[in-house]
Specification:
Elements (H helix, E strand, L loop, with lengths): L7 H26 L4 E4 L5 E2 L2 H32 L4 H26 L4 H6 L6 E3 L12 H15 L22 H8 L5
Helix pairs in contact: 1-2, 1-3, 2-3, 2-5, 3-5
Length: about 190
């Protein structure tokens, strides 16, 4: 079992499970934050949506994008730092993990949200309202997860302290150890005492 915790299989499982859990939690958060638009049953049995309700149609995509950007950035940062002993494998897993999180967030939010308004409208009388389904209508919103994850990962990969130090190759027997920069400047500065 100890071998599994450090091997590539453990990295794949850990990274994808982390993205799945975060994506599911974000789906619950998305469902909690969105106030869905409402259809109102008309006199002739159809449905209409007022201007205020039409503006709410964009709220679902907006909240999805905001949550995905924040969660994606933090998850990309944390996963890249946490599973950094094999940085190439972890980096390779970021995009599939982000796609999994994006899909799970949309699926969980949709499952928790209101039912199909067509079936709900059949059971209401004239003047009553039913909420629309919680779905992502702008497919570009799905790109927020991978873009944010990659920015988070880049913050770790570009930082000097983000990834634990790699072992430096040993020096040859006749090679002197490197001197600190301050000592080297003193030695080469003609004005130094």
């Amino acid at each position: 079992m100890r071998r599994l915790a450090r091997g590539p299989v453990a990295d794949v499982v850990a990274v994808l499970a982390t993205f799945a859990a975060v994506g599911a939690l974000c789906g619950v958060l998305w469902w909690l934050l969105v106030d869905p638009a409402q259809y109102t049953r008309t006199l002739r049995g159809g449905a209409t949506m007022m201007e205020v309700e039409l503006s709410k149609r964009f709220n679902a995509d907006g909240w999805y994008s905001v949550i995905a950007i924040v969660a994606g950035f933090v998850t990309g940062l944390a996963v890249t730092w946490w599973r950094s002993h094999d940085a190439r494998l972890t980096t390779f897993l970021l995009l599939p993990g982000a796609a999994l999180a994006a899909a799970l967030m949309a699926a969980v939010g949709h499952a928790l949200g209101p039912e199909n308004p067509d079936t709900a409208l059949a059971g209401v009388t004239r003047g009553q309202s039913v909420p629309v389904e919680l779905v992502v209508t702008a497919t570009a919103s799905y790109l927020m997860w991978p873009v944010a994850v990659l920015f988070g990962a880049l913050m770790v990969l570009w930082s000097s302290t983000g990834v634990p130090d790699q072992d430096e190759p040993p020096l040859a027997e006749d090679e002197p150890a490197p001197r600190p920069v301050a000592d080297e400047q003193k030695r080469t500065d003609p004005l130094a005492p």
